[in-house]
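Here's what a typical entry looks like (Delta-aminolevulinic acid dehydratase):
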Amino acid sequence: MTSSLQSDLKTHQALSLPRRPRRLRRNAALRKMVQEAHLHVEDLIYPLFVTEGENTRVEVPSMPGSYRYTLDLLLAEVKEAAQLGIRAIALFPALPEAKKDATGTESYNPNGLVQRTIRAIKETVPDVVVITDVALDPFSDQGHDGIVSETGEILNDETVEVLVKMAVSQAAAGADMVAPSDMMDGRIGAIREGLDNAGYTNVGILAYSAKYASAYYGPFRDALDSAPKFGDKKTYQMDAANSREALTEIELDIQEGADMVMVKPALAYLDVIQLVRQNTNLPVAAYNVSGEYAMIKAAAEKGWIDEDKIVMETLTSMKRAGADLILTYFAKQVAQFLAK
Ligand code: PBG
């Protein structure tokens, strides 16, 4: 301390402040005592990409540290995640073009990639909650979440019929929850009815209720080779400018039988997470999507940000906004960080 600063400090008079918020920030113990939002390993859902073949994992170029796994290596990854305390995974298939068609018939093949993967996970790590994606895009030769008409329209009711078959076949393979990510109208009710009629009354539905048409999904579409072959997804996914509409979607999904609802993406939609949290008593999930992951990874690779700290701050902001659960490609990294 310079001597001039010391003499300045000697003459100082304490301000008479009854409220000094800094008192509660004085040391780490006090800060922990007043911490409001907490990120726990139990909050995490780990999305994983599975592909055909053996003993291979291929890194997704726009998602460093994320891979498409063949089933054998995927099982090892799920085991490792479980050992770190992660309780749930969300499964996405990457199919060869030859398996794709106009109506996504491969999606309800009882021996399809997803169905075989669910069975294998349930045999090897039965306690891990398996959540499966219900949407046509990985199975569609058009890369859309629905069936495309001759005029290029995404057909709603025809698509819902396929989604029901897909969800039932995933439940038959052992999925704990199905997660419709397609944004067709009425799919939650139809899937609930389909599951119940097939005897799967205990298989839950995690509804991608407020899913926005977002450029943040770019890296995910690289991962699955599932980018739409024409146009965009704006006739079914929501407009980024809207939040009241999110409440309409949530309300419908709840009426139709959703067990949990989701807001996706997460980071640019924290206000929507908060709004949804305030308008339902159901668990709310937030999807920290591929583009959010890619941005952090890219900046960290350049040495411009501290990756672990940015990840913790970002995911904690989702908890603060009101998310109960977070789907994140950072799941293992966060679990490791929290265990330190
Ligand atoms: C498609 C689906 C998408 C994601 C999950 N399911 C992409 C899309 O709607 O085009 C995105 C996930 C991510 O970006 O991490 N049904």
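The pocket of PBG is lined by residues 133, 135, 137, 145, 181-182, 217, 220-221, 233, 289-290 (CB under 6 Å).

More examples are in the samples folder.
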